[in-house]
Amino acid sequence: MAGCTTRCRQGVLKLIQSVQRLLSGSLAKDNTDDELEMTTVCHRPEALEQLESQTNFCKQELQILYRGFKNECPSGVVNEETFKHIYAQFFPHGGKFLHHHMCFSEQISHGFVSCVADASMYAHYLFNAFDTTNNGSIKFKDFVTGLSILLRGTLREKLEWTFHLYDINKDGYINREEMTEIVKAIYDMMGKYTHPALKGDVPQQHVDAFFQKMDKNKDGVVTLEEFVIACQEDEIMMRSMQLFENVM
Amino acid sequence: MATGVAAWLPFARAAAIGWMPVASCPMPVAPLDHRRRQDELIVLNVSGRRFQTWRTTLDRYPDTLLGSSEKDYFYNEESKEYFFDRDPDAFRSILNFYRTGKLHYPRHECISAYDEELTFFGIIPEIIGDCCYEEYKDRKRENLERLQDDQEENKDVKLPHMNFRETMWRAFENPHTSTMALVFYYVTGFFIAISVITNVVETVPCGSTATQKDMPCGERYTVAFFCMDTACVMIFTVEYLLRLFAAPSRYRFMRSVMSIIDVVAILPYYIGLVMTDNEDVSGAFVTLRVFRVFRIFKFSRHSQGLRILGYTLKSCASELGFLLFSLTMAIIIFATVMFYAEKGSSSSKFTSIPASFWYTIVTMTTLGYGDMVPKTIAGKIFGSICSLSGVLVIALPVPVIVSNFSRIYHQNQRADKRRAQKKARMARIHLAKSGSANAFLLSKRNGLLHELLELTGANSGEQKLSKSSCFLESQHHHLLHCLEKTTAHEFVDEQLYEQNYLEAVMQSFPAARRASASSRDAVTPTCCGRRSKRNATALPNAALQPGPNQQGPLQELSAIHIQCADRPSRSASRSKLNLKADDVGRLNCKAGRITTAIVSLPSPPALTTPDGDNFLGPAARRPPPSSPGPSIQTTSSSANVVKVSAL
């Protein structure tokens, strides 16, 4: 009852205030006060020496990486939209046109095969893999840590990172649904115009092949150890992993 | 957000490790990067101002000049920098494009200069960011309109081969191009005025006669008015038919507004002619006479301001439409309200809602005739609200229309001003340009003079004449000289050319030679002018001006005659003409004189003159049969007469 009275009183006060403003002609002026608090937050990375010790990059490489990062994101953090946008640029028919139509919605990437290539789902999983602190934004430290593992890390580290990428819900196991999602996301990046033409069940076949290879005890899920052992047995994959070492 | 793909490519490639376990085939070999790993600063020197940036910044956009290997053409080895001889201020925004990915258009920059810079550096203007794109497009549109205005002025220029129809159309469209057109323009204007005044005066009461009092003039002097009307309609019909005949596209002409007005103006007369017999339709016939007032719109061909007004109304069509719509809405609302408010009062004029429309309109436009006034209190309240809101609703779209009119009007003013200044501008430009053409002749004469002096052995130390021209000029003159040698003709200035040509024509009538000589000295500018004009039509390339002959004698007077000793006075080719021309005054000077026949350069493209020469050459050589072949020897030392005339 008391709450009701206070609410009524507040309401009446507000009404009187707005009538006053109407009469004095300053009705529209105070809307900007509320928005002052929404200033952009600026993040600064850790010191250069600290990052150098924590990652496998040397100073010049860190400098180059930071310059590119800061150029793209002057505020110092990447949020998921921007990340998707940047990643989508690399795939044909993907980023540029979609950007203007802003159809990064979930509906398009799920379900049916999209008519334009859609890198947003894979970018989403990538984002989650990089965002180790799970706060919805990638700072430079996360970015550089992830890159350090991918480019300069040991084989075991790379495999672990890949496992965490596939493990969407981060429960330590990869099950069929997660793998299907990942494979579908990868195929989505190809788009419709492929040769031979993509059929609906190709991702499923791919997942089946994967589980055939990885799931040793046939329990329907792949653990980290199973994953690492199975990958180390595969010669081709080992060679492929070394492929990107000289990217920087 | 910058969209430099290159900066994030290493990241995307690294993230591709996520595909490896899923892949079923082996991966292709990665390309090796042999170049330096370190990023380096490169220096861009733009007209002295040094900009420095990372190499990778520029590599972000590989399809531009700075991002591709095209910039190697500008590399300066000694200073180890890239030098561009361009505007450093405009370069700032271009370099910022590489840095931030957004191209901005600086407002103080001229639009065409900026466009040129963008084209030079290989950047398409469509990349301009949203913040500046609208401004850019507006300025570009204005510039285009201005250029279009300038191009339209060229339609005044008479094309060389216009048939009768085209001439007539041009005369109709631009009355100031010929006197006939001007006369026609004024005559039609006069008849339009007459017609309108006649229509007006027809209805004025003219005084009473015996039979009736206060007849309008139209009924009193029926025949006179009918004749006047007929005459006007005759003129209008003839004008319309002539325009129809001359129009380049008759279908388009018939669809144009002016022609529709013309038709509407003259049609009632013809319909009236057909329909006078039938009494029943005479009422309709009277109505048709109303359309005669449309003749006043024919004045818009004569008045620029009317055309601007019409164009403004057309361009503000949407604002006018909005005004009309909102007014209609308000009228209906207030009429309804007033009707129901006044329904109660007795003897109220508000008999129905449509009847209230009249009250609402009169009130909203603040006319207030007072023939309908509300009597109840509610009616008065709503009536006052109606008049207050009327002011607001009408006042809102009016400034838009006014600003549109102002913009179009000022545009027209600017166009008129530019047209007026154009003549003076072109004359000055022409003067400056012809200076360069004359430089060649001057230098040639100086060169000749120099050689002559060498020949005569006098003043062999006079080297200064050849040093006066810079290296570029001397190369240019060498080029023109080569052309002369190729075609075996020479460049000559205008006056001498006309002189020579006219005298060549005169020589075909030896009896007229005396006349020509006398005409040179006589003061008959017009007849000579006309004659030279006639000659001009045969030589379209040579731009002869009326009345050059008066300058002929003056020129000869100012000529410097250099007498070259030991040279027999034999002449070669066209120089003979000059000799013959000179013999009237200078038969005494027996010593050899070297004449250079100099053909004028009427305009900077000097290549037209060889044609003129060819026209002249055979014509000139035909009459005097004794003249030798067409070899022109100017620098040779055989007997030539030099006439170095001051220009």
Write structural notes for this entry.
The complex is a heterodimer of chains A (248) and B (647). Chain A is mainly alpha-helical and 248 residues long. In chain A, 60% of the residues lie in helices and 4% in strands. Chain A is built from 14 helices and four strands. Chain A has helices spanning 2-24, 31-35, 48-54, 59-72, 80-88, 95-101, 106-109, 120-130, 140-152, 155-166, 176-190, 202-214, 224-233, 235-241; strands at 77-79, 137-139, 174-175, 221-222. In chain A, the strands form two sheets. In chain A, strands 1-2 form a two-stranded antiparallel sheet. Chain A is extended, with a radius of gyration of 25 Å. With 647 residues, chain B is mainly α. A four-stranded mixed sheet of chain B has the order 2-1-4-3. A two-stranded antiparallel ribbon of chain B has the order 5-8. Chain B has a two-stranded antiparallel ribbon with strand order 6-7. In chain B, a hairpin with a 2-residue loop joins strand 1 and strand 2 (49-54). In chain B, helix 7 (179-202) packs antiparallel against helix 9 (222-246), helix 14 (317-342) crosses helix 15 and helix 20 runs parallel beside helix 25 (608-621). Residues 458-465 and 511-647 of chain B have low confidence and may be disordered. The chains are: A mainly alpha (248), B mainly alpha (647).
